[in-house]
Write a structure and sequence with these properties.
Length: 270
């Protein structure tokens, strides 16, 4: 007697439907918004609006810090998202700061100006490529070399501060030259910089921490260019202080081991 169940239909229903490949919209929206920040910064620099250009870079930096956290919190990490993030970073923190610095001050130095801008841009590309092939991170609390958003913040922050003070680029062109080279070359060093990756947004914190965050926001609002640039100068020097301290104590200064597919770099990580 037939009981109304067709075994062939049941077997077909038991096979899970193949999931169509797609792209996670939420984290990639943040990445695209960050890319727009970098593009906006370049356009503003071409129009001579250097304060707006600097704000575009800082906005891209905030959005870049969010896309990875959003992807992890919503469990939407993907290989596509990683590649998209790297390409957006190259525009926002590699090409944009180099071009803004060149148009604002370095153009008056002739060939030395574009050499400094290119060195920064090339170092940003090398920094991002090296970050992508670093497979076994020894200590996730630290970056190897100055992260590209912080390097961009140093360059853009200085331009923002000087623009607000009414100082023209030609007046501080050699200072801009030195800062551009420092930011670029520090990205490709083995100096460890604190990554803040051990700060969890999901963990509960004491009430005092929220009060301190509110005070921090208030202090930044007093004079955003000065405070932001000051904070990134401290951060930009902190790696060398930590490097010296580790060397003095005889500790390992490298925080990563590289991909086995890449040329042997063990001699660089002493």
């Amino acid at each position: 007697m037939h009981d109304g169940h067709d075994p062939d239909i049941e077997a077909a229903e038991a096979v899970p439907r193949k999931r169509r490949k797609g792209i996670y919209i939420l984290p990639n929206l943040f990445t695209l918004a960050g890319l727009f920040g970098g593009f906006y910064a370049i356009v503003m620099a071409m129009n001579g609006r250097f304060d707006q250009a600097a704000i575009g870079v800082f906005a891209a930096m905030v959005l870049d810090s969010l896309d990875g956290r959003v992807a992890r919190m919503t469990n939407t990490q993907s290989a596509f998202g990683e590649q998209m993030d790297s390409l957006a970073d190259m525009v926002s923190f590699g090409a944009a700061p180099a071009l803004i610095a060149y148009v604002w001050a370095l153009t008056s130095l002739g060939r030395w100006g574009w050499i400094a801008a290119f060195v920064y841009c090339a170092c940003a590309a090398l920094r991002l490529a090296r970050f992508n092939v670093n497979t076994a991170v020894v200590d996730k609390r630290f970056f190897q070399g100055l992260p590209s958003p912080a390097a961009a913040a140093l360059v853009a922050g200085f331009i923002w501060l000087m623009t607000e003070a009414g100082v023209r680029g030609e007046e501080v062109r050699w200072l801009m030259f030195a800062l551009t080279l420092y930011s670029g070359l520090t990205m490709v060093t083995n100096v460890p910089f604190y990554s803040f990756k051990d700060v969890s947004l999901k963990r509960s914190v004491p009430f005092a921490v929220i009060v301190l965050i509110a005070l921090g926001i208030a202090v930044i609002n007093i004079d955003p260019p000065t405070v932001m640039f000051g904070l990134f100068v401290i951060y930009g020097l902190s790696g060398y202080v930590l490097y010296g301290w580790r060397k003095a104590k005889g500790q390992q200064t490298s925080v990563i081991s590289t991909s086995t597919d890449e040329p042997d770099e063990r001699g660089l990580h002493k």
